Amino acid sequence: MITTSLLFGVLLAFSTSAEEAQEPKIVGGSDAEDGAYPYQVSLRLKNRHFCGGSILNERWILTAAHCLSGFNESKISVVVGTNTLDEGGDVYKVQKIIGHPKYSSLLIRNDIGLIQVDTPIVFGDKVKPVQLPTENFKKNDYPAILSGWGTTSYPGDVPNKLQHITLSVIDQRECLNTSLRVTDDNICTLNKKGEGACHGDSGGPLVADGVQIGVVSWGTPCAKGRPDVFTRVFSYVDWIKNHLEQ
After folding, report:
1. pTM of the entire structure?
2. 151 has a pLDDT exceeding 60
3. CA torsion 155→160→161→164, rounded to 10°?
4. The predicted structure's pLDDT at residue 178
5. Measured between alpha carbons, how far is residue 44 from residues 55, 76, 101, 183, 189 in Å?
6. How many Å separate Cα 96 from the centre of its chain?
């Protein structure tokens, strides 16, 4: 069994499936204050968190395509408005799931997806939509916030409280050198060893200056001093908006 190669990092780092719904993990993060990330959602399978996502409007959720691969709408629920996995929040049933038509599970490209809930999400202090980018993000060594639930090590225990961490967006040339799978439709972050995303954190939002610039896609498990790879949201804004307007 391959356990140390890049292939392991690409295919297993943040992937989940109906049969293997692993808890999300942020390594080196800390507990988020209640209501700090009102756009954050928890995707559940039989009330078990398996991926993250973000609220786009009263009917649509943004996440990763690989979070939706192999799932039936009726099996997934969306929980909003809580920073704890075991209590609080509002639960919404899923009406439709849409993975990007050019998503490649082999290359982990176009790893972006949408979820439509069956009833309008009720907004409040702890439930608000995230802002989509209006321009391409081109800043280097710039702070961005990742939020999600999960263990603080790999392997490790799953914390009940939402975790958050400030990551540094690296130069795009360095990002492209991470792997042949990486394209300009990706954004990469890298702090120091011991800080980053991990298994099952997929679909979660990477936010800079209040704007969602990335969706957790893949990486080498976990926080080993290698870049984490996100889907670049700006590359898919038109695709997203086309569905939101339907």
Report:
1. 0.89
2. no
3. 20
4. 94
5. 15, 6, 23, 30, 26
6. 18
